[in-house]
Write a structure and sequence with these properties.
The chain contains eight helices and no strands. It has 168 residues and is an all-alpha fold. The chain starts with a helix and ends with a helix. The mean pLDDT is 94.
């Protein structure tokens, strides 16, 4: 187990750009925030409020997925209690949630991708196929997660999408 944690530390350090000013850091910050739950919840609530029919249903399904995923992530974080990597960026994440495993952002984005594969639209599923891994890796790049946190979160997101599918 110790050798896996050392490998995780080494790979995480290679992906980190939080302390390196420049284009890659700026893009990583934007991607890291684009997976925030409030961002997705606000957009989906607005869509459910303004749209009818299929779009309202899609939005409500995705909101259900976000809520369920957040609950499961929170329970796992409380049980595992893995500290976030040391760093300065992401003080809001660090102060409101000091635990890193699993990544809620990675879980949420992969759940949204997989749910979009089920309920559509196909163009959004295609966009999320690229966006979800980028958001996940940006969390490592910005130093708020280890690589294993986002990999675990991505697997959890796919499992949560399966739960959403079963509920449907």
């Amino acid at each position: 187990m110790q050798s896996l944690l050392l490998l995780d530390d080494r790979l995480t350090a290679r992906l980190r750009v939080a302390e390196t000013p420049g284009f890659l850091r700026t893009v990583s910050i934007l991607l890291a925030h684009s997976g925030d739950s409030w961002f997705w919840a606000a957009g989906l609530v607005a869509t459910a409020w303004l749209e009818a029919g299929l779009w309202r249903w899609r939005s409500l399904v995705m909101l259900l997925g976000i809520a369920g995923t957040a609950l499961v992530v929170m329970v796992i974080k409380i049980l595992v209690r893995r500290r976030r990597p040391a760093g300065e960026w992401g003080w809001l994440y660090r102060s409101s949630d000091p635990h890193s495993f699993p990544s809620g952002h990675a879980a949420r984005m992969m759940m949204l991708f997989a749910v979009c594969c089920l309920v559509g639209p196909p163009w959004l599923a295609g966009l999320l196929l690229v966006w979800a891994p980028l958001v996940s890796l940006s969390r490592v790049a910005m130093g708020v997660h280890y690589l294993s946190d986002v990999l675990g979160g991505m697997v959890l997101g796919l499992l949560m999408a399966a739960v959403v599918a079963a509920v449907l």
